[in-house]
Write a structure and sequence with these properties.
By secondary structure, the protein is mainly alpha-helical. The chain has a single domain (5-102), classed as Arc Repressor Mutant, subunit A (Orthogonal Bundle). The chain has five helices and two strands; from the N terminus they run H-E-H-H-E-H-H. It has a two-stranded parallel ribbon with strand order 1-2. The radius of gyration is 13 Å and the shape is globular.
Length: 112
Amino acid sequence: MASDPGEINQRIWQVVTMIPRGRVATYGDIARHAGMPGAARRVGRALRGLPAGTKIPWHRVINAQGRIAVPAGNAARITQRRRLEQEGVTFCTDTRISLKRYRWLPGGEQSE
């Protein structure tokens, strides 16, 4: 596993770019696919470090409960929800997405 934080971020960001429009992946999914099983929090740290104006679809990454992890009251939370809805992702409740319906799994498999 890479030990350079910049290299780790690049690996994580590369996996995030693979998530198709209208699908989501969990922080743990991204960590596993980047070769770092159990490092979901490291994925969150990498996403917080994205450069301003990035084209990486960070909004497609949610927590294992199918919820947006950005705290309430944070503008990024509103942005994330809006972007997901613009891609056709619907919320089951005010804050939860159906992982069964929208989860993307690497390798072309879907969780449906």
